[in-house]
Amino acid sequence: MEQGVKQNIKFNKSYFLTITVEGWVDVFTRDIYRNIIIDSLRFCIYKKGLNVYAYVVMSNHIHMIANCNEPFQLQETIRDFKKFTAKRILAQIENGNESRKEWMLDLFSSFGQESQRHKKFKFWKSGNHAIELYNSRFTWNKVNYIHQNPVRANLVNKPTDWKYSSASNYIESESLVPEIILITPPLNYG
What we know:
The protein is of the alpha+beta class. It is built from four helices and five strands.
């Protein structure tokens, strides 16, 4: 298996994952949808053996570093996470007060029609862009990449200012996902 290259999740090793909304639709510009992601991550941590070491929720994708405790398998946990969040978010779009409702549902419906596996809507892109973490330096590069994402997108000035990220966990500050497992040594975002 080539190191640092995208691959399918085959074993319970640690991976850098990118989970992307189909069509790169900017769904996560509203807290209601981001909170569904956060709640689902926390559920998977407590009930599906998910260990999350770093994460960020951006406008149309999620990055995370994760693995699973046995007997759970990361591939299955992420599949379930994607299935559940897709249903919850689509239901919220359909039944909530979403100004982009028609446009979004039309897009997700068209993606679903192009897919043999989806009946009505397709919310997430297939795959997880899984990259196995193979050494400390590579891992820290990915952690920094994750935490710098909102800064590069001009959403915040400092990584720790983005509440939908694990950056605050690394400075022992309040976090939406306090269950994050810190990789040592801790980061200095000073």
